[in-house]
Specification:
By secondary structure, this protein is an alpha/beta fold. The protein has one domain (4-248): Rossmann fold, CATH 3.40.50. Helices cover 48% and strands 13% of the residues. The chain has a seven-stranded parallel beta sheet, sandwiched between helices. Helix 4 (94-122) links the parallel strand 4 (74-79) and strand 5 (126-130). The longest helix has 29 residues, at 94-122. The termini are far apart. The structure holds NADP nicotinamide-adenine-dinucleotide phosphate. NADP nicotinamide-adenine-dinucleotide phosphate (NAP) is lined by residues 8-9, 11-15, 33-35, 38, 55-57, 80-84, 103, 130, 132, 178, 180-181, 183-185, 188.
Length: 259
């Protein structure tokens, strides 16, 4: 029987390409997101695929997703669904940020806990949490909540990685931490990247390779990998100032002028 992989946020961007990458490697796929038509369109291109439409910003939907697939021996979980919002903290609507926290943090937390228990019992499998280079930084002015959600994901993933090592488990967990990737992320965040973005295909390939290699932090861009290590040595306030400048450059013409 083919091994099964569950990819959240598979209707677009990085998740869609990760699903394709796993399909190429012979996995049976379970695709999850809200837009059923997009998932069905992707499923038609893949070999053996199941589609589950769900809103992962809701706890009951995360639990339903788990309940629906828990008997299908999922050996790879990719927690990819997520989004950001660009703007000054006091101006972004609270409802948007709470939905972001629910999707980027709570859903990742819930699904990681539920599936990890099963993987540990089988003593095999992989979890890939799609974080961001934002999750390696001390903060992100003009994307404050988004950076905080991704810091949560890298921190949680790092701790679990070490716990698995301490327990001599064969289960692996990784955090994918790319910089800008050319997806629908910007449209949702109401931003424009100021710098060159990598393709979602390349990002997915690096993510999947890194996951199977058991890497803790996967950074697809070599330059960013070096920069993020250097950033750990630099003063916090200097990094915040530079990050704030970079975020300002993402301002879209129709976004708030005070950014
Ligand atoms: N693009 C970048 O520059 C970049 C860089 C670093 C990290 N990331 C991270 O990469 C991940 C994927 O983003 P992307 O760049 O591929 O953006 P994207 O093209 O906008 O894809 C986001 C995916 O998340 C799904 N999603 C969002 N809210 C959801 C919800 N409530 N329930 C279920 N699914 C939901 C979307 O599906 P539906 O709308 O159909 O539900 C979509 O499939 C995110 O976690 C993002 O933070 C992106």
């Amino acid at each position: 029987m083919a091994r099964t992989a569950l990819v959240t946020g598979a209707s677009s961007g990085i998740g869609r390409e990760i699903a394709k990458e796993l399909d190429k490697r012979g996995f049976r796929l379970i695709l999850a997101a809200r837009r059923a038509d997009r998932l069905e369109e992707l499923a038609a291109q893949l070999n053996d695929t199941r589609v589950i439409t769900c809103d992962l910003s809701r706890e009951d939907e995360c639990r339903r997703l788990y309940d629906e697939v828990k008997n299908e021996k999922v050996t790879v979980l990719v927690n990819n669904a997520g989004f950001g919002k660009l703007g000054r903290f006091e101006q972004i609507p609270l409802e948007d940020e709470l939905r972001m926290i629910d999707t980027n943090v709570r859903a990742v937390h819930i699904l990681t806990k539920l599936f990890l228990r099963d993987l540990i019992e089988e003593d095999r499998g992989y979890i890939l949490n799609v974080a961001s280079s934002a999750g390696l930084m001390p903060g992100g002015p003009l994307m404050a909540a988004y950076y905080a959600t991704k810091a949560y994901v890298t921190s949680l993933t790092s701790s679990i990685y070490e716990e698995l090592k301490m327990a001599d488990s064969r289960v692996k967990i990784s955090a994918l931490c790319p910089g800008p990737v050319d997806t629908e992320f910007n449209r949702v965040a109401n931003a424009d990247f100021g710098v060159k973005a990598i393709t979602p295909e390349y990002c997915a390939k690096c993510g999947v390779e890194g996951m199977f290699a058991g890497k803790l932090i996967i950074i697809p861009e070599r330059g960013l990998d070096i920069a993020s290590k250097a950033a750990q040595l630099a003063p916090r306030r200097m990094i915040l100032a530079v990050t704030g400048q970079l975020q300002s450059a993402k301002k879209k013409e129709d976004n708030d002028a005070s950014l």
